[in-house]
């Protein structure tokens, strides 16, 4: 029955109480002084005004107790004084609306229902003139008319005040829930945007790693070989390979920068048809690569094609950096019910079945396969370091 409210709310309620009670209390004063009244009745409207203003000020602190107090004051005013009832009953209406706004328990609503019935009965008694010391009881027909035209309308009026408070509570609750829902939606949207931005940064970092690591590995291998080459033609071929590899890396980096500037730019990344050129560049760096490719002209999902190319590129880069020198690297790409990329070579540095799980390249291959809707397996298989990726074909129409 008792609530906590802020000082600001208390001040607002005090101003509302003054605005409501002031004009109506003035009417009560005028009505009282027009009649022949004693000393008590002459000061009673002022006392009543202060009481009602105080009760309306604390109405949200204790809605039901304040309502009961206001009803008792109004009952005394009607039964004993029978003059100027405007301020007291208007205060009761406002308090009934407050109870409907804040009451939560069955006891509070039961007490409020009792107040509604008793208040309607008092209004009926006053309206028919059957007040203490003010005439005789009405006849049967007058009672029927009193119930019909005074009691029932009063019940409806007071009940309407309670229902107005209930409707206001539901409206405020709906608005609060809507604000909380919008806040939650905005929070989810912000998290999705952050996640999308993080995924975009990860994708760009992965692409940059694939491009730069592969190209630098080829350039370093070619440069080291050129240092020991005595044939001028071999040196020229080596320098041409270095230039071609560096130029290709520059084009790829420019493409990544273009994607950074234009998020909706078309994807001009490589596909399966570019794998033979990739293999030739790696062969130019001194690698022995045995390539098996499916027939040309097979249409695949773009994501699967790009993932297959990047997996082959990263697997060959790993073979160049960590594989046994001079050992062949087997690259096989098959297309059937699914796209299968199988790259394996003899490792030079890995011991047993241990695979460096923190490698950016290996993580990138796994992520690319997952993004394309496929699966990957990377590890040591009977003495071979194997990269096995399976992805959906998803033929384009």
From TrEMBL:
SUPFAM superfamilies assigned to the protein according to its UniProt record, in alphabetical order: ATPase domain of HSP90 chaperone/DNA topoisomerase II/histidine kinase (SSF55874)
EC number in record: 2.7.13.3
Reactions it catalyzes: ATP + protein L-histidine = ADP + protein N-phospho-L-histidine
Keyword Zinc attributed: no
CDD domains in UniProt: HATPase_UhpB-NarQ-NarX-like
The name this protein goes by in its record: histidine kinase
Annotated ranges, domain Signal transduction histidine kinase subgroup 3 dimerisation and phosphoacceptor: 200-264
Transmembrane residue ranges: 12-31, 37-54, 86-103, 115-137, 143-172
Entries under InterPro entries matching the protein: HATPase_C_sf (IPR036890), Sensor_HK_TwoCompSys (IPR050482), Sig_transdc_His_kin_sub3_dim/P (IPR011712)
Gene Ontology CC: one annotated term: membrane
Molecular function GO labels: ATP binding; phosphorelay sensor kinase activity; protein dimerization activity
UniProt keywords, alphabetically: ATP-binding, Kinase, Membrane, Nucleotide-binding, Phosphoprotein, Transferase, Transmembrane, Transmembrane helix, Two-component regulatory system
Superkingdom: Bacteria
């Amino acid at each position: 029955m008792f609530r906590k409210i802020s000082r600001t709310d208390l001040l607002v309620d005090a101003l509302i109480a003054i605005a409501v009670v002031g004009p109506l209390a003035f009417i009560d004063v005028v009505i009282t002084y027009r009649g022949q009244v004693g000393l008590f009745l002459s000061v009673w409207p002022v006392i009543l005004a202060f009481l009602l203003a105080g009760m309306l000020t604390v109405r949200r602190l204790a809605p039901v107790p304040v309502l009961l107090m206001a009803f008792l004051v109004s009952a005394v005013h009607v039964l004993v004084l029978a003059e100027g009832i405007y301020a007291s009953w208007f205060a009761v209406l406002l308090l009934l609306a407050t109870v409907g706004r804040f009451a939560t328990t069955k006891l509070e609503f039961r007490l409020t229902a009792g107040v509604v019935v008793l208040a309607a009965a008092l209004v009926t008694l006053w309206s028919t003139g059957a007040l203490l010391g003010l005439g005789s009881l009405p006849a049967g027909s007058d009672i029927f008319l009193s119930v019909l035209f005074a009691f029932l309308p009063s019940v409806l009026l007071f009940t309407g005040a309670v229902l107005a408070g209930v409707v206001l509570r539901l409206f405020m609750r709906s608005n609060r829930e809507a604000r909380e829902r919008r806040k939650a939606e905005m929070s989810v949207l912000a998290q999705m945007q952050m996640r999308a931005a993080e995924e975009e940064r990860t994708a760009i970092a992965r692409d940059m790693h694939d491009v730069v690591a592969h190209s630098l590995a080829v350039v370093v291998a070619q440069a080291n070989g050129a240092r020991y080459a005595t044939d001028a033609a071999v040196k020229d071929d080596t320098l041409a390979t270095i230039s071609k590899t560096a130029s290709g890396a520059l084009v790829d980096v420019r493409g990544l920068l273009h994607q950074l500037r234009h998020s909706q730019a078309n994807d001009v990344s490589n596909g399966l048809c570019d794998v033979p050129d990739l293999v030739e560049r790696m062969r130019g760096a001194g690698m022995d690569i045995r390539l098996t490719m499916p027939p040309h002209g097979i249409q695949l999902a773009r994501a699967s094609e790009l993932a297959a190319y990047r997996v082959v590129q990263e697997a060959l880069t790993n073979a160049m950096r960590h594989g046994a020198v001079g050992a062949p690297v087997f690259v096989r790409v098959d297309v059937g019910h699914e796209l299968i990329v199988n790259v394996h070579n003899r490792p030079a540095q890995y011991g047993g079945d241990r695979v460096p799980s923190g490698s950016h390249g290996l993580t990138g291959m796994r992520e690319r396969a997952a993004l394309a809707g496929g699966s990957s397996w990377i590890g040591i298989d009977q003495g071979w370091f194997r990269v096995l990726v399976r992805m959906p074909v998803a033929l384009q129409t």
